[in-house]
Design brief:
Blueprint (H helix, E strand, L loop, with lengths): L15 H10 L14 E6 L2 E6 L2 H10 L8 H5 L2 H4 L8 H11 L7 H19 L3 E4 H18 L6 H16 L5 H4 L12 H27 L6 H7 L11 H31 L2 H11 L3 H6 L12 H13 L5 E5 L4 E3 L2 E3 L4 E5 H4 L20 H10 L13 H18 E5 L7 E3 L3 E3 L4 E6 L11
Parallel strand pairs: 2-7
Antiparallel strand pairs: 1-2, 3-11, 4-7, 5-6, 8-11, 9-10
Helix pairs in contact: 6-7, 6-18, 7-12, 8-10, 10-11, 10-12, 12-15, 12-18, 13-18
Length: 464
């Protein structure tokens, strides 16, 4: 079995200028290997004091027990505000609480079941778009995940002209957006301009313009009584139970921007790494392909599966969990202190940065058995439940846990099952991907796999 690839790690001590230069290229390779076993790490500079908390007790303290004392870092917001504005991903306090009160109902109860047919249509389209031969699977999964978002949010397939333009512009924005800017390192006054690259400013503005058009069109449909009953309609018509207000148009643009980023970019990352892990573990892939044949009757009849069919894919779900553990799409969460704190004998002043590294917690050598190995069967073991409670945080934890976590899991399991019905994925010798973190954990030069049509044997036919 092939060990999953890891980034190169820097030496424990490097000059500051080299550290910053490395950080601009990639977050992961900037970290020393000792963090996989460290309890805490500290960086103390004249303009930045940061600690990475690497023990379950400190992670619980920050994310679950006292989350209001550790709000989202304003420094992180500096690199995202061009695109995300004042969205729920970056806000804190009463503003964030109001936003969550209005967003959460769209993902509660039976809403996931109601969006399932749109997910299925996107999964079908994704399987049909793939072709045999060498394929850059990250791009293919980005296309698939964006399709899911547009179908469930605005009832539009990715082939819709506006949806396609948003998708393509976002890919250009990813390539241009810097991972580090001056304001993320040194607190700057609000009035001082932030010098983003021109391409970053232009792509962010264009994406927001396109989303504004979609939101305006949906507002007219709601007023006319012709709006489809999808996530956008649900969110735009939900009133804050405290104030009775709805989102303004500008606020809704902010939220759609983060839904697209969080719901498309993160899912694409996780799906691509999962397929790579299956390509390098062909025996396990064969087991999952057999499990996926439960979809075969729906494929042949052209009818959408029932939501309950997801229960028939336990191995696929466990495999996706294992992929999230090894390659969490969002590698680190950054909070800041509102008051002086003491962590493990170290004093933190107000405004210190507190980093919860999902990447390191998912691979921590004091928590997990064989932490760097791909072992999806571990999720059937009782001992893994304790590990997962302490260190499996791909959707964050506490009050700020991702509201779309259930949505993301259902989407991923369905897409993986659908693709495995039709396609066999094989690793290409000499093209091992190198993980790096920009907006999410991606591969430096993409993830290239060889695809071939899967032949279904009589033994793999589902028992129906």
């Amino acid at each position: 079995m092939t060990r999953p690839p890891m980034p190169a790690h820097r030496p424990d001590r490097v000059p500051l200028w080299r550290h910053l230069a490395m950080f601009r290229r990639d977050i992961l390779s900037t970290q020393p290997a000792r963090l996989y076993r460290a309890k805490m790490a500290e960086v103390k500079l004249p303009f930045l004091h940061s600690v990475m908390v690497n023990t379950p007790d400190l992670v619980r303290l920050v994310l679950q027990e006292r989350p209001r004392d550790f709000p989202k870092s304003e420094r992180v917001r500096e690199g995202l505000r061009l695109l995300l504005g004042n969205s729920v991903f970056v806000t804190n306090g009463p503003v964030w609480e109001r936003q969550r009160r209005m967003i959460d109902p769209a993902f509660e109860g039976g809403r996931l079941r109601e969006t399932f047919p749109a997910m299925w249509d996107a999964a079908q389209a994704s399987a049909a778009r793939l072709q045999g031969g060498e394929t850059e699977i990250e791009e293919a999964m980005s296309h698939a995940a964006a399709d899911v978002i547009f179908r469930t949010l605005f009832s539009l397939p990715i082939e819709d002209a506006t949806a396609a333009e948003v998708y393509q512009t976002f890919r250009a924005h990813q390539r241009s957006a810097p991972i580090l800017n001056l304001a993320a390192l040194i607190p700057l006054p609000r009035w001082l301009p932030r010098f983003f690259p021109r391409a970053t400013r232009e792509t962010a503005a264009h994406i927001r313009e396109l989303i504004t058009q979609m939101v305006a069109r949906r507002a007219r449909e709601i007023a006319d009584g012709t709006a489809p009953d999808d996530l956008a309609t649900k969110i735009m018509t939900t009133r804050d139970p405290v104030t009775g207000e709805r989102f303004t148009r500008e606020e809704m643009v902010d939220q759609v921007a983060i839904f697209f980023l969080a719901g498309h970019e993160t899912s694409a990352s996780a799906l691509a790494w999962t397929l790579y892990l299956l390509a390098t573990h062909p025996d396990w892939q064969a087991r999952l392909a057999q499990e996926a044949q439960a979809l075969r009757p729906c494929i042949e009849s052209g009818s959408a599966p029932d939501f309950g069919l997801l229960k028939r894919f336990p191995l696929i779900r466990d495999t996706f969990r294992e992929s999230l553990r090894l390659y969490p799409p969002v590698p680190m969460l950054v909070r800041e202190t509102l008051q002086p704190e003491e962590f493990r004998g170290r004093n933190l002043g107000r405004g210190a940065q507190v980093v919860v590294s999902l990447w390191h917690m998912g691979r921590h050598e004091a928590v997990w058995d064989a932490p760097h190995e791909f072992r999806p069967e571990r999720w059937q073991e009782a001992a893994t439940k304790a590990c997962a409670r302490d260190a499996f945080l791909p959707f964050s934890s506490g009050p700020r846990v991702c509201t779309g976590a259930g949505f993301a899991m259902a989407e991923a399991v369905l897409i993986l099952a659908r693709l495995l019905c039709d396609w066999e994925f094989t690793a290409i010798e000499g093209r091992e991907p190198v993980p790096m973190a920009h907006m999410t954990v991606r591969a430096r030069d993409g993830i290239w796999l060889r695809l071939s049509a899967r032949t279904v044997s009589p033994q793999e036919s589902p028992d129906i």
